Amino acid sequence: MQRMRPALLSTLIASALLAGGGIALFAITSRIPVSFGFVAYGPLTGSLFAPDGFIVLTTPAIIAAVIAVVGAVGFAGAAGFAIGHGRSHGPAE
């Protein structure tokens, strides 16, 4: 079995940390209550608009999701490179 290059190993670790951190940040930031402006005519000014299944994501939650996706893609790419590089020594027999 071949040893993994230090740069590849550090890329795998950094990508895994990015993905895990992004998931944790998304879990935290998606629970923040969100309020946004809603303009209605007189009789509806005191009512609350809360439809079922409606989720409003905040900017930090979207950024956390992007960080998680970038980490997952980086991890998958580095893992694929490591697996492919380990098998590409010499012609196939």
What's the quick description here?
It is built from 2 helices and no strands. The protein is mainly α and 93 residues long.
Structure description:
The relative contact order is 0.22. The model has no long low-confidence stretch (mean pLDDT 81). The protein has helices spanning 6-29, 59-87. With 93 residues, the protein is an all-alpha fold.
List the helices and strands and how they pair.
Blueprint lengths: L5 H24 L29 H29 L6
Labels describing this entry:
transmembrane; transmembrane helix; membrane; mainly alpha; 93 residues
Sheet with the most strands, sense and barrel status: none
The H-and-E topology, N to C, reads as HH
Number of helices, counting only DSSP H or I runs of 4 residues or more: 2
Mean pLDDT: 81
